[in-house]
Structure formats: structure tokens, C-alpha cells
Amino acid sequence: MRLVRWLMVPVLGFLGACIDLDQVSQVKDLRLLAVKSDPPDLLYSFLHIIPPEQRGGIPLGPYNVTTQVLLVDPKGRDVEVSMRLCPEDTQLAGCAGYRLRDAAPPQQINALRPYLDPVTVTRKADLAVGGEISVPSFNMNFSDHAVDYMLPHDVNGELDLITALGFSALPSVVVRARIPDTGEEVVAFKRFSLNLDVSPETLPAQARELLEGLFIALTGTGFCPPGTGPLDDVQCVKQKQPNHNPSLQRVLYMRGGDYLRVDAGYRDDPTSAGQFQDVTGRITVAPGEPIRLRPIVGDADREAYQGLNFDLQSRKIELRNFTEDLVFSWFATVGVPDAQSTEQFTSDPDAVWTVSPDAPDGPAQVWVIVRDQRGGVDWRRLDFDVLTVPDEDPDEGALLDGFEDATGVDIDP
User: Fold this and answer.
1) What is the pTM of this model?
2) Are 365 and 293 in contact (CB under 8 A)?
3) Of residues 155 and 39, which shows the higher confidence score?
4) By percentage, how much of the chain surpasses pLDDT 90?
5) What average pLDDT does the segment 93-107 reach?
6) Domain ranges of the chain
7) 245-413 homologous superfamily
8) The 3-state secondary structure of the chain, one letter per residue
9) Residues in CB range of 293: below 8 A, 6 or more apart
10) Average pLDDT of the residues of the chain
11) For 254-309, how does the pLDDT look when each residue is reduced to its tens digit (9 = 90+)?
12) pLDDT of 162-211, one tens digit each?
């Protein structure tokens, strides 16, 4: 019987309360730990809301998306990996059985078809790095016709303009990893966003007037005045800024499990106090030893953004201003990274990784993954070597040699 484990990468955090943390954090079998789209957020031109035949031949795109995966098999086996595009947010499990819309224009179908067939490779897990598998990136270069297809449509196949203005289109990449010898399989899908590029200052006057009128009808407010900053808490439509993946700049470590809670927005560099050191190369640890780990992200990684919120009391759609709240998850081949939390995702960056007391000598790996909860992801692998320090049984005579008793007489062992 084939073993299939489904991993919904964007919503895995909701499972933290019902899955035993030790089972989730310890990497013992084939695991798809994360999938990254770069960029996680594509902005498409306002011209896409105009029928193609009315665009005057203005070229749009191309729009490039690259997908990477963090895939691990600590048993060192050959793994078959495939990736494909799922062009619409669908309820089909893993996009299985998806068919292109029959009513779509032929140029849209032809533009997307190359990305619907899975690209498959077979790679061997590298035990020197915890079984991590080097998987080639999946690159997609979308034309204007491909983007036209992926935008929201109504039941008649026409562009759903209101949905396109207020909400992201969410195509996804489906990743399957399979052990050919056993049939064991893990599946993940990673959504990326398509959002209308709202840049009032660069829009032609007629297009600006059209878009602003639509936003006023939808939210009751128009474009912000020039000079409005991304962090300004104002009720007007800001210039759309694309989301970026967060960046794990470094990871620090300190021996011992003493825990000092830090604010999720910390900026201080704790290496200056001599408590932490950068994880570089391979760090030697002992069985049972606790190691405190702290990831450092980029200063600009907590991005400001604007979204729509439905107010239940007024029954109206309103604009809301947000700032990203980064969350972290930890995985290890040996021992348990407790992350000071009973949840798999935690906004507290620190974790204490305790090496298993019975860990054999040899390599051990820890992975940290950061997510911005809007589709942005980054990760880093930390390499350690477990080394058992032998218990010494010193010669008793050697210890007593040269000592005197209370009477001043040399002790002859």
C-alpha cells in the first residue's frame, strides 16, 4: 500500500495544535519541509483588465517565477521529484485531474500548457548534509496570455474585475517527491500571488480615473495623495508594493539551554556581548548537549502592506494597514528543537536544540524556516558534528602522587 502524506505548505501552521511537536520537528523519513516561490508576489499591469484586442499591441510581461524546494530524506535514498503548475486556486487535491477551461482562448491555453506537464528528476539524498536533496529550480516565464488565463473569471469565462481589484489570484506549483523502491510519497503545493499593479502616479489619466472610481465603489475611498508612505496608517488606496521573500542573514548559537526571551522585532546584535557566535562551518556538539539558536533576518523583512477587511457591523469592505509578522519553524535529524513553544510555527525567533543523549557520533543537521505569512519563505541549514567525549577513569595513584596528609607525611599510593 502506497504511503501518501499531504503537506499543504501555506497552512501547515494550523496543524501545530494537533500534531505532536516531536514527531513534526524530527526528520526521520522523506520530508518536504518548505517550498519557495521567487518572487512570491507578481504585480501585473492594469492593461490586463482590458480585453487583449483593445490593448493596442502594447507588450506585457514576461512575468518570471522560480520555485525551489527544501526536500530531505535522512535515509539517503534515490528520490523522484516532479513539479508542475496548477494555474487556478482549485479544490482538487494536488490539482489532480485539472483541465484547462474549454472556453479559454487558444493563445491562453498554448501559453500555459508547457507548465502543466510535470518536470521530473531523480536525485540521491546526500547524507553528509542530513539527507538534503539538491533539486533543480522550476522556472516559469509567463506571457501576457498566461497571466490573462490565471486571473479570476466568472462562470461565463469573463474577467471578474471586482475580485481582481480586491483579491489576489492564487495559482500554485505542485511538488511531488516519491521513493521509487517503496512508493512512499509526499506532496506539497505552494501558492504565489497575482496582484494588480496599483501605481497611480504612472497610470494614464483615463486608466487612473477608471481604477480610482472602482476602488471608491468598492471601499469608499480613492488613491492616497503623493508622498504617502507605506507605513502611514491612512484610509486611502496606497501604491501597491510587491511582497518579497524574507532573508535569513545569519544564525547564532550559544551553548547551554538558558533562555532569554526576545521581542520578535529585536534588532540588537547579541554577538557584541560575547554570548552568541555565528554558526559557520560545522560545529562540534556532544550527545545530550543543549544549544540555543537565534536566526537573524534582514532589517527590511517585516514589510508593510495594505489589504481589504469585511467589517461585520457595518457590512462594508474597508482598507486595513498591516505589518508582516514573521514566524519560524525548526527541524532536526537528531534531537528536538523545542522553539520554546508547543506550536510548530512561532513568532519567537529563538529555539533550544537538545542533541539526543543517545545520538551516534557523526553529522547532525538543523533547519530553520522563516515565513512572512503572505507567501514569502526562506530557510537555512545548520551543520553540526556529534562527538562523544569518553569518560576518563584516571589512575588513583596519579591523583594522590605529591599530596600530603594532615600530618605532613607524604602519602605513598
Assistant:
1) 0.81
2) no
3) 39
4) 44
5) 83
6) 1-197, 205-239, 245-413
7) Immunoglobulins (2.60.40.10)
8) CCCEEEEEHHHHHHHCCCCCHHHHHECCCCEEEEEEEECCEEEECHHHHCCHHHCCCCCCCCEEEEEEEEEECCCCCEEEEEEEEECCCCCCHHHCCCCCCCCCCHHHHHHHHHHHCCEEEEEECEHHHCCECCCCCEEEEECHHHHHHHCCECCCCCECHHHHHHCCECCEEEEEEECCCCCCEEEEEEECEEEECCCHHHCCHHHHHHHHHHHHHHHCCCECCCCCCCCCCCCCECCCCCCCCCCEEEEEEEEECCCCCCCCCCCCCHHHHCCCEECCCEEEECCCCEEEEEEEECCCCCCEEEEEEEECCCCEEEEEEEECCCEEEEEECCCEECCCCCCCCECCCCEEEECCCCCCCEEEEEEEEEECCCCCEEEEEEEEEECCCCCCCCCHHHHHCCCECCCCCECCC
9) 251, 252, 253, 279, 330, 337, 350, 351, 352, 353, 366, 368, 382
10) 80
11) 888 665 544 444 444 555 455 788 999 999 999 999 999 999 998 888 888 887 77
12) 788 778 899 999 999 999 999 999 999 899 999 888 777 777 787 788 88
Give me the half-sphere count of Cα atoms (radius 13 Å) on the Cβ side of residue 92.
14
CATH 3.30.9.10 describes domain 1-197: no
Between 19 and 345, name the one with better pLDDT: 345
Asked if the domains at 1-197 and 245-413 fall in one CATH topology, the answer is yes
The number of beta carbons lying within 10 Å of the beta carbon of residue 242 is 14
Taking only the tens place, the pLDDT of each residue in 389-409 is: 876 655 544 444 444 443 444
C-alpha cell at 261: 526571551
Quick check: 10 pLDDT over 50? Answer: no
